[in-house]
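Hi support team,

I submitted a single chain yesterday and got back a structure, but I'm not sure I'm reading the token output correctly. Could someone confirm the output below corresponds to the sequence I sent? I've pasted both exactly as they appear in my results page.

Thanks,
R.
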Amino acid sequence: MSLFLWVFTWWPSSALSLLLSVVGRQTGLEVVQATVCSRLDLEALKYTYAMVFALEEINRNSTLLPGVKLGYRILDSCSRYPWSLQGGELVPLLICAASSTSIIISRILGPLSVPVISYLASCPCLSDRTKFPNFFRTIPSDIYQARAMAQLAIRFNWTWMGAVVANTDYGQLAIQVFQEEIQGKGVCLEFIETVNRENIMSDARRAALKIKASTATVILIFCWYTDVKKVLLELAKINVTDRQFLASEAWSTSDDLLQDLAISKVASGVLGVAIRSSTIPGFENYLRSLHPSHRPDDEFFREFWQKEFGSCSGTESLEGVQHPFTDTSQLRVAHNVYLAVYAAAHALHSLLSCPNRDSPPGNNSSTCSSPKHIKPGELLQRLNKVNVSTPQGEMFHFQGADIPAKYDLVNWQNTPEGSLKLVLIGHVDGFDLHLNESAIQWSTGSNQVPVSVCSESCPPGTRKANRKGEPLCCFDCIPCAEGEINNRTDSLRCERCPSEFWSNSEQTACVPRQLDFLAFNETLGITLTTAAVSGAAVTTAVFVVFILYHKTPMVRANNSELSFLLLLSLKLCFLCSLVFIGRPSVWSCRFQQAAFGISFVLCVSCLLVKTLVVLAVFRSARPGAETLMKWFGPGQQRGSVCLFTFVQVIICAIWLSLSPPEPRRDLGFQGSKVTLECSMASVVGFFLVLGYIGLLACTCLLLAFLARKLPDNFNEAKLITFSMLIFCAVWVAFVPAYFSSPGKYVVAVEIFAILASSYGLLICIFAPKCFIILLRPEKNTKKNVMAR
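Hi R., thanks for writing in. Yes, this is the structure output for that exact sequence:
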């Protein structure tokens, strides 16, 4: 009356198949060595006794499987898959180790509904219940450790990494999940090197040279610890000690690597994901109490004892001995074995528990079996619903084939002896990463996180531009254009500022655009103001000269009253330009155009009347034209000037009353400044003002041109002709310049036209007269003025 439960562990150097039997009140031990292995693996041996300890603990438990005792059979399969089913008996439950072994055994036993529980098979493929409906495990799927490692890369901003993976399902599936997890997260793999167990020396050398040539400083390794050791030794040979390694659980806690001084400089600072550690109370004392004399049939333990003590005299003891075999400070895989045994025991307990065993079978509240008639399919159903509670109060259950994912995060740190020690720096609970960053010692020897990027992050004020033909993690940083900003790191594009804002000098923020107008305190404003004031001052000086010499022939002969009025209008023309300078306001916008239009019409009207007077004087000298001068007397002259000017006053009044210029911000000119200008609400009014001035100026130019050859020195027609030519040329050039100038330079162009035409009139008409009055007084005589 026996029921067998196999426990099969796979290890590279040696493997142990542990066969559990459920017997009525009997406990037995049988050791069968199927073949001779090269050496004994202490870790696998520790897993074996974790199973034995769990069995004995269950057998002492009066509430779990009462009346039933568990036994076991230890089989050595030496890492050979065909030997994993040795024993020649069909068993209702098998506990096994590695993924490859689990896949083979699950497929063989699946049609028979024999449950398989693994404590080390982490292949994600085994989570597929359609292919492996009879499989369970007490170790998380590699999907979760790959996700945790991707989270670490993202958290530390390692965007440029290398990877070395085993050319097995373990390595290939893990790197595939890792790549899926980092997709779209800004992390790239520079290279993926695969290593094969059959060619490990050459592959390790190739991987080491690839790591040395790489620009990535963080290297991800999904390999078995023996393969990793070869790679690290090759790196030590070529003195590569500046790489930060990210370790998978297959080698992150390997004592063989931690104690090897040859790789301590290369492996310092390793950050790894590890199978979670836990405690099994009483297990250390149990291990130390083991002795060959108590286990005469245990060939494995006898081999271990001879290796450590050299003999079996009976006086040797593990008590007080510091040895990896008795070290239970961080039980990882052994704890998974412990849980697997308890999961099997609880499933059996559920199946064997019959609340109403004495009642008829049809009245049983639950289906149950006896130890003599356990069906594997029934046990499989119980395992799917099992809820394990260990003596330490630890609870876990299966979610399909898996248990809730939990990992430790470990760090390899230097010790004074030169070796490395394992330091717990955090843990992973499902998708949550809990990490004490301050406790990490990095490969650089400092607490500064290593930088591993293809391109440095693009700071605010720039945007990322991907390099053609290179991974997304390799890019250039392009400064944002003017008027565009970016206040984030590694942004793909810059944002344009709103119309009334502009980018600051760092291109990181939009700031209000500065108001720009032609101010008195800027260079251009000062220059134009100086020119206007100087023109007004010169005009005043000429006015004073004409007053002082008003009785001289030169002043009297040139119609002194109109000359004084012309000087007054010229002074107004110079001064009206000052209204255009300064911050535009409602008042200044309306006044400046009216002042300009009226002042220039007054000026041109005076010249037009002077020209008409010249023509009338010479026409009156002809016989029969004496009455012509009656129409051009002083009163008529003043009236004509007032009439011409009044027409302009009417035009300005209508324009300013219907659609006056108003201050407006011109956003059309892109720049850090916004122009504050006087907007012409009605262009028609402005062109009517200019057109009327142009009409008078052209009429004056035509008449002066006709009178330019009239005799006598006092003839002003020549001077008026030159002045009007300059006047018209200036204002003809003004129109295209006005409409093509940007911002405040529109105002500057109009002021320049006002000043240029005013200076032209002042110089052409009054400079010759002042020259004679002041410097050639001998020519300021009636005889000289009247000479032909």
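A quick pointer for reading it: Residues 1-36, 361-365 have pLDDT under 50 and may be disordered. Let us know if anything else looks off.

Best,
Support desk
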